[in-house]
Each structure stands twice: as C-alpha cells, then as structure tokens.
C-alpha cells in the first residue's frame, strides 16, 4: 500500500464518504470515522494520523477501495470484478485467492488476476489449455491489438469465421496487462461479449429473435424469408442444434424463434450471451432455404446392417468434427478412413452413386 491510496480514501471521505466492499469511511465535525463491520472495527473522532494508522492495519481494504473506485467503463469494471469474484467473496477471502493467483475462464481464455505488493491488479491472459505452461514457453504479447490478428486462425492455420467458436489457437500469452488492457484484449478475442454480458446482468440486453432477424434480411439473404413463413419453427430448432450448440459456439443463445415462442433445443452454458442470430447462422440459413425447397423423394439403397450403421456413424463423426481424432489403424471405428474408403469402393458405382442409385431418377 502506498500513500496515494490512503490520500484517495481520505479525500473520498471528505467529499461525501467512502464505501466499498465492507469498508466505510466518512468525515464530520469530529474527524474521520473508520468502519469495517466484518472485522469488528468502528472508530470515530479520528485524526489523519489515526486514519493512516488504521489504513495500515487493514491495507487490503484500502487498496481494494482504491482499485474499485478508479474511473473505468462500467462494463469493464464489472468484468474485472467478475474475474476476481469481487461480488461473491469478502476482501480477505479474495485477497488470499489473488495472492495465490486466482483465475477464471471466459470462453477459452483463462483470465488470471495477479496482485502486486501495493494491491494493484495485473492480468495474465492465455488459452485455458495453456494454464500450466511456463510463460517463457509461450509467445508473449503486450499490445491488446495483437489479439485481433492472433485469433483469426486456429492451430492448423484455418480461418475462424466465428470468433466464438471453440477453436481458439494455443501458444500465446498476454502476461502483464492492466485492467483496461485486459478488457480490451478480451474484446478483440470475443467481440462485444463483455458489453452484452454486462447488459444482460443489468437487465438491459436487447435480444433480436429469429423471426425479426430474418425479416430484415435483404439482397441475396432475403431468400430466407421464403423458408421462414411463420409455419412452425422446427427448422429453426435444426439450425440452432447445428450452429449454436456448445460444441460449435461458446456463446449462450438467448434468442428464440420469436418473443412468444421458445426453441426446443438448449441454449448452451456459455458465460456470455448471444443476442441475435449471427452472420454465420444467417448465411447457413440462406443455403438451407434453397436445399429445403427441394421435394423429398424415396430412394432405394442396398446396404448391410453394419453398412447402414456405418453411414450414420460417418455423418455423426463429420458433424461432431471428430474425423481427425480417429486413428488410421482404428478400423473398429465405423468412421475410420480405411473403412469408409472400403464402403465407397464397394457401394459406389463409377459415377459416384451410392449403391448405384442415381440422384435424379426422372
């Protein structure tokens, strides 16, 4: 604790009173009054020297006051207090955790809060899977702006069209950020998530549901209106299951079919909310609008029971993004590459038709 933090407390007390997280200090005709009920402390008629003495006896409360009365955006302040559970734990409990290096996870980002000798917070941001990796073994960044380009691609260098997809690359660290830079970095990794999360907590999140979002589509995306004619919402359940599951997006879906009609599929468990169908969902819906306009037909295929189950397993493996995890030698897995190639060799004709059945029989 340094003198400036005590002066800040005294100034606030003179200007109407200082109160934060269990500490209360005010100033009247008899001098200062210093109160921490949880510690059994309540003294009044204090001089500045007395205030300084008590401040040094309870430095964690004083530095905590200095940190959380600093001018910063409301959403950023709420996020940083969330990171150290400031609204859940007492100051002593919280400081004990911070001295050991407390951390929480925002999406796939591990947000660790570090405490220096003056009670100031420093923040270490990295992929949650890199929690135990020595900082020196990771690529170090100090400018929040670097996060914007860092998260454009996944570990395999593939472009990430959905920033909230669970495909954040590994191997990087922002090891020594102040609060403002930490919030800014998170916003580059997961745009607008802090603001929307804060609005939700304040009861002010403005949700745009599926119908209203689709109704305002125009141009090449206007075709989705022909799919969404108010004739039920089963197709939207399919869209949400395909795109908004926790395995595909880390946001918690809050939008429904419309204000009165909830979707049947779960919205997920993400920390931060999704307030409207995103551009990826709209783009996919445009494609499905065209595909779903086709008339169903009945085809006849010849498959063994095991081959039918294999086709189903292959679809599951692709849908779950599991194909890369299937070992080449694991031919017990129905979606194994060699088993799939065998099925193709056996059941596809020279034109690529399953079981020799052409797609267009007319």
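Sequence proposed for the structure above (362 residues):
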């Amino acid at each position: 604790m340094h003198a400036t933090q005590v002066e800040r407390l005294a100034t606030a007390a003179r200007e109407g009173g200082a109160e934060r997280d269990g500490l209360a200090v005010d100033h009247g005709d008899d001098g200062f009054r210093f109160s921490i009920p949880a510690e059994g402390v309540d003294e009044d008629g204090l001089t500045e020297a007395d205030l300084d003495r008590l401040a040094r006896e309870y430095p964690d409360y004083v530095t905590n006051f200095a940190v959380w009365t600093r001018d910063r955006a409301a959403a950023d302040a709420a996020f940083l207090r969330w990171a150290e559970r400031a609204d859940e734990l007492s100051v002593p409990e919280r400081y004990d955790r911070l001295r050991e290096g407390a951390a929480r996870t925002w999406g796939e980002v591990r947000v660790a809060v570090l405490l220096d000798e003056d009670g100031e917070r420093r923040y270490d941001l990295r992929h949650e899977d890199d929690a135990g990796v020595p900082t020196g073994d990771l690529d170090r960044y100090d400018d929040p702006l670097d996060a914007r380009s860092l998260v454009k691609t996944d570990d395999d260098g593939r472009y990430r069209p959905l920033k909230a997809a669970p495909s954040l690359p590994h191997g990087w660290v922002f090891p020594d950020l102040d609060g403002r830079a930490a919030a800014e970095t998170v916003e580059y990794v997961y745009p607008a998530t802090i603001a929307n999360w804060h609005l939700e907590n304040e009861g002010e999140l403005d949700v745009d549901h599926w119908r209203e979002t689709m109704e305002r589509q125009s141009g090449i995306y206007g075709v989705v209106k022909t799919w969404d004619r108010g004739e039920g919402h089963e197709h939207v359940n399919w869209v949400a299951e395909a795109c908004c599951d926790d395995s595909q997006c880390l946001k918690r879906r809050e939008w429904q079919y419309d204000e009165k009609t909830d979707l049947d599929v779960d919205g997920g468990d993400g920390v931060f909310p999704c307030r409207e169908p995103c551009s990826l969902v709209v783009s996919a819906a445009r494609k499905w609008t065209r595909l779903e306009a086709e008339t169903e037909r009945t085809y006849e295929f010849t498959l063994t029971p095991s081959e039918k189950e294999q086709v189903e397993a292959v679809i599951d493996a692709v849908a779950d993004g599991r194909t890369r995890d299937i070992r080449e030698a694991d031919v017990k897995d129905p979606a194994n590459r060699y088993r799939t190639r065998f099925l193709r060799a056996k059941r596809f004709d020279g034109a690529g038709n399953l079981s020799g059945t052409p797609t267009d029989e007319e």
